[in-house]
Amino acid sequence: MSLSPARVFAALNAVRPPERSWPVLGKAVVVGGSVAGLLAARVLSDHAESVVILDRDDLHAPGGRPGVPQGTQLHALLPGGFLQLEQLFPGFREQALAQGAVEAPPAARRSYLDGRRKVVVPDDADSLAGSRPLLEGLIRQQVLRLPNVKTVTARATGLVVDGAVTTGVRFDVGGMSGVESGDLVVDAMGRSSRLSDWLEQAGWERPVTRRMTVHLNYATALFRRREANPDLTVVMALHTPRMASDVAGAAFFAIEDGRWMAMMAGYGDNRPGRTAEDFVRRLRQQFPPEFGEVAGSELLGDVRTYRHADSRRREFAELKRFPAGLVSVGDAVASFNPVYGQGMTAAALHAACLSTYLRSGPDLRVPARQFLALQKVVVDAAWSMSTSADLALPHVDGPYPRGYRLSSWVSRQIVTATVTDVPTARRFNDVVSMRAHPRSLATPGVVLGALRANLRAR
After folding, report:
1. Smallest Cα–Cα separation from 43: which of 198, 180, 188, 194?
2. What angle do CA 270, 275, 280 make, to 5 degrees?
3. Which backbone phi and psi does 265 adopt, to 5 degrees?
4. Are strands 249-255 and 116-117 parallel, antiparallel or unpaired?
5. Plot region of 434 (φ>0 → left; ψ -120 to 50 → alpha; else → beta)
6. Are 31 and 37 within 8 A, CB to CB?
């Protein structure tokens, strides 16, 4: 593409739904009712006469989906993702608050790094705190209200390809087979997407899958929240490898129904918080006082644990042969270490890529190379942020990118400076919240500013 990745990233963050819808295709089929699939369906509703979401779960059933085993864990909606949802669903904030979500403006968010409180950065990057079922449920309600969107409860079993063009999806329901035809098929099947197998079975290339083994263990617990409107709604504390702690970090959010949701994470053989006693003890002893206050509240239910073996990405953009009428979004393309909270925001940016692609009036009889190029900018950005942090972990052994030693030193200087320096913290927050591309940090001005701030702090 002619634009730099930083400019592409900025443009995607500015994408808004068209003021007037006009169809560029007849029917689109979205395989998977994940957040990524729902956001893709929302974008497609502006450009398709009809949109079908095919999922093995009944998307009209209330509550969390059985197909989301990590749904009970703490999820972050980064400011970048919140802004995207507001653009796709005007009034999303008010509706989320009406259903119990809690406002999380900058003044209500607090972060610690190795026990040191980071500076408060004044900006307008609001966000929301709420459970994954609440946020995903609200997105699902908004999408299923659209007049040209319907659902099919079935298990997808394969692609239908006519020559070099994808024309539909095979599915099975109650032992009966069928085909959902479409002019565009969107794979939103998540980390366990079977699209690679389907492509190979149909005689196409299988995308290379890159993995970063992290062996993350995390646990989540709910506590009763006494304050209806707490001063702090999101508090996070990260331990870097230099701290030599068996806990990588912890966080707690105010969520719906008068509850706190707290999370604790460790790597490798470290599995902190597996029991209620261990969870409460560590919150009190290993983290700042705010965590102890939450731990002093009534524990609601059991501690829920989850294990994340690796981050992974499928390199669809590198395929030399790829069928037309087919794209993939969300975790089906790339899923990252969940500690960094990128999942929902990355999915929203994938939807922005799809919107940009469809607005160009593409020829759906040729591979969606423009979409793949845009999406690669988003995937590269999120992957570089996630894996550069993972590579600093003692138990992670590569693969290391070229120039890693220098880039990791620069990253450490910038991260350290965010504790005390407002300009560095503001730039860093824009990148972490996925409102700006990581390259915006790799400038002489930012690096020198971080070095000066760290010298002053010493």
Report:
1. 188
2. 95
3. -135, 150
4. unpaired
5. left
6. yes
Residues 6 or more apart from 192 whose CB is under 8 A from it? Answer: none
How far is 124 from 107, CA to CA, in rounded Å? 10
| pLDDT for res 1 | 46
- Residue 70 has what DSSP assignment? G
Pair 322, 290: CB distance under 8 Å: no
**Structure confidence at residue 77 (pLDDT):** 80
Which tokens sit at 124? 């307008």
Q: What span, in angstroms and rounded, lies between the C-alpha atoms of 93 and 88?
A: 11
What pairs with residue 313 in β-bridges? Answer: 210, 334
CA-to-CA separations, 315 to 8, 21, 77, 200, 320, in angstroms, rounded: 19, 31, 26, 14, 11
Q: Are 80 and 435 in contact (CB under 8 A)?
A: yes
Residues contacting 405, CB < 8 A, separation 6+: none
Nearest to 262 by CA among 310, 223, 290: 223
Give the 3-state secondary structure of residue 174: coil
For residue 410, give every residue at least 6 positions away whose Cβ sits within 8 Å of its Cβ, in sequence order, or none. 442, 447
The Cα–Cα gap between 130 and 441 comes to 30
Beta-carbon count within 10 A of 251 CB: 24
**Do residues 262 and 188 touch, judged by C-beta distance below 8 A?**
no
Kindly give the parts of the chain with pLDDT less than 50.
Answer: 1
- Residue (of 335, 339, 211, 334) closest to 266 by Cα position: 339
Q: Are 135 and 260 in contact (CB under 8 A)?
A: no
CA distance 56 to 52: 13
* pLDDT tens readout for residues 69-127: 566 777 778 888 889 999 999 999 999 999 999 998 888 999 999 999 887 766 667 78
- Which residues are CB-contacts of 94 (< 8 A; sequence separation ≥ 6)? none
State the DSSP string of 297-321: SPEEEEEEEEEEEEEEEE-GGG-SS
In this structure, the number of other CB atoms found within 10 A of the CB of residue 187 comes to: 30
- DSSP assignment letter at 63: S
What is the Cα–Cα distance from 344 to 350, expressed in whole angstroms?
Answer: 10
CA 406/CA 392 separation, integer angstroms: 13
Question: What ranges in 89-201 are assigned the alpha helix state H?
Answer: 92-98, 132-144, 195-201
DSSP β-ladder status, 149-153 and 48-55: parallel
Let me know: does 263 contact 252? Beta carbons within 8 Å: yes
Residue 96 phi/psi, 5-degree rounding, is -65, -40
Length of the chain: 458
Report the pLDDT value the prediction gives residue 128, as an integer from 0 to 100: 86
Q: Could you tell me the sign of the dihedral formed by the alpha carbons of 353, 355, 357, 359, in that order?
A: negative
Structure tokens at 200: 């190979």
